[in-house]
């Protein structure tokens, strides 16, 4: 840290200038979904591979840390040292858990969702939909699932909790409590985007190296 003390000033000297995005995703039309059987490995080989990966991770971590801090210095971006943690295997950040495996929903939020009682007012519906919407990139077809609850929040819509609402509520809870781990995107590698559209909505999934980066969807009403 002594080599990068200028990255952790007591007072921030100012904001960096606005910059254009430095990457883009090129889509390929009419590409089929990836469907390949998973590669199997002998248990002894898998144990040895995990051991080697663990050694490489720790050996390279300092180099990666220097690279990140070097970029912050180059771009005149700053961090508060008391808010930083180093040599962590996983980090809790804004309701997410970030680790070498990828990005997952914070277990504390999962527990809150699991214990959430059925909404009885529009305000309670908005609160639940707001929490669920924050994690919508973890949920495939989110907009389709949430549509019945969204309709309840309209001013011209009487509050009537139907079987459709209950089904949507329970499905969202189930999806959130079993949300997948999303891969951390690498802007230096290619992405694949798969899209679909219907009269009810739009949906897509962003993939990198056959792993999900994020889901996205939007209803058409």
From TrEMBL:
<feature type="domain" description="Reverse transcriptase/retrotransposon-derived protein RNase H-like">
    <location>
        <begin position="161"/>
        <end position="220"/>
    </location>
</feature>
<dbReference type="InterPro" id="IPR043502">
    <property type="entry name" value="DNA/RNA_pol_sf"/>
</dbReference>
<dbReference type="InterPro" id="IPR041577">
    <property type="entry name" value="RT_RNaseH_2"/>
</dbReference>
<dbReference type="InterPro" id="IPR043128">
    <property type="entry name" value="Rev_trsase/Diguanyl_cyclase"/>
</dbReference>
<dbReference type="InterPro" id="IPR050951">
    <property type="entry name" value="Retrovirus_Pol_polyprotein"/>
</dbReference>
<dbReference type="Pfam" id="PF17919">
    <property type="entry name" value="RT_RNaseH_2"/>
</dbReference>
<dbReference type="GO" id="GO:0003824">
    <property type="term" value="F:catalytic activity"/>
</dbReference>
<keyword id="KW-0511">Multifunctional enzyme</keyword>
<protein>
    <submittedName>
        <fullName>Uncharacterized protein LOC111242267</fullName>
    </submittedName>
</protein>
């Amino acid at each position: 840290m002594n080599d990068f003390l200028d990255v952790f000033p007591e007072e921030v000297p100012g904001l960096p200038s606005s910059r254009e995005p430095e990457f883009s995703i090129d889509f390929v039309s009419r590409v089929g979904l990836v469907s390949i059987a998973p590669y199997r490995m002998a248990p002894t080989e898998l144990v040895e591979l995990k051991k080697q990966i663990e050694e490489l991770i720790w050996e390279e971590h300092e180099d990666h840390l220097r690279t990140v801090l070097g970029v912050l210095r180059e771009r005149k971006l700053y961090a508060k040292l008391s808010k930083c943690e180093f040599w962590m295997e996983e980090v809790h950040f804004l309701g997410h858990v970030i680790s070498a495996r990828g990005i997952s929903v914070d277990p504390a939020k999962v527990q809150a969702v699991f214990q959430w009682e059925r909404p009885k007012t529009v305000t309670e519906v908005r609160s639940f939909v707001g929490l669920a919407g924050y994690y919508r990139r973890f949920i495939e077809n989110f907009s389709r699932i949430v549509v019945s609850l969204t309709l309840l929040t309209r001013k011209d819509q009487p509050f009537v909790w139907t079987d459709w609402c209950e089904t949507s509520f329970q499905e969202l809870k189930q999806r959130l409590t079993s949300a997948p781990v999303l891969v951390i995107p690498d802007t230096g590698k290619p992405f694949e985007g798969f899209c679909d559209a219907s009269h009810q909505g739009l949906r897509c999934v962003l993939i990198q190296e056959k792993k999900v980066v994020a889901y996205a969807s939007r209803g058409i009403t």
